[in-house]
Amino acid sequence: MPPRKVYPAAMKKWMVLVACFSGLAGASRVVMDTRLSPQPTYVSDAQTTRVLRDTFAPGNVPGCRDARVTDETPGAFTRRGARQTAYLVHVCGNSRLVIYEGGRIVKSLSNIGDAIGNIGDINGDGVDDLLFLAKFYGHGSNTVQDASLVTLAGGKFRTLFDLPEAAVDECSSANAYTLAYRVTVQPGTRPVLTLNHYQGDCVAGARLFETKTVTLH
């Protein structure tokens, strides 16, 4: 996901639900709901040390001290039937997606975002697709968060769908409003997304504003 401008508004921590639906085919399911709170993913200290060691060459670990590994997510991300695990590495204000298979890194991508999630195979190619989330900070405590559905089938990165401003919290600004999305998918060779768009003031909270569908190619 390419970098974008920082909005001139402050940001709260966004609450995002990322659910794993690997192996479920055909049934309509939720792939994202930015109204809800996430379930944090625990990565052991030993695994964190290993991932950081494998990601950065000896003597080339960045000097900043905020290196951490989050969002340990199993799936088959680059080929059908693979037993892989995706990790999100955060270091020096940047992030990197690292995918392991058989004890070694088979795919690495930089500038991914702040969170990842396995959304299952939504286009029938036998490979699990991913949700990427990226949030942007302004002044105070307002937040803008973008979302992308992507595939790594064949080891190649491809964006299936981008949703800019999937979540907005402007409660610290004069406008004082919130915005969120609940996105469901009907899997298939041409997946159909249903986007429920919620918005409202910061006291009453976001309410359903509109619903639309998008067919992916």
Description:
The chain is mainly beta. The strands form 2 sheets. Strands 1, 6, 7, 8, 9, 10, 11 and 12 form an 8-stranded antiparallel beta sheet that branches. Strands 2-3-4-5 form a 4-stranded antiparallel beta sheet, covered by helices on one side. The protein has one domain. It is flat. It is built from 1 helix and 12 strands, in the order E-H-E-E-E-E-E-E-E-E-E-E-E.
Task: Briefly summarize what is shown.
This protein has 1 helix and 12 strands. It has 217 residues and is mainly β.
Helices and strands, with pairings:
Elements: E1 29-33, H1 45-55, E2 68-75, E3 84-91, E4 94-101, E5 104-110, E6 115-120, E7 129-137, E8 143-151, E9 158-169, E10 177-186, E11 192-201, E12 207-215
Antiparallel strand pairs: 1-10, 2-3, 3-4, 4-5, 6-7, 7-8, 8-9, 9-10, 10-11, 11-12
Give the count of structural domains.
1
Write the H/E string, N to C: EHEEEEEEEEEEE
* Biggest sheet layout: 8 strands, antiparallel
DSSP, total strands: 12
Class based on secondary structure composition and strand pairing: mainly beta
Beta content comes to over 45%
Task: State the helix count.
Answer: 1
- The geometry reads as flat
Integer-rounded radius of gyration: 18 Å
InterPro entries: Integrin_alpha_N (IPR028994)
Signal peptide: 1-27
Organism: Deinococcus radiodurans (strain ATCC 13939 / DSM 20539 / JCM 16871 / CCUG 27074 / LMG 4051 / NBRC 15346 / NCIMB 9279 / VKM B-1422 / R1)
Protein name: VCBS repeat-containing protein
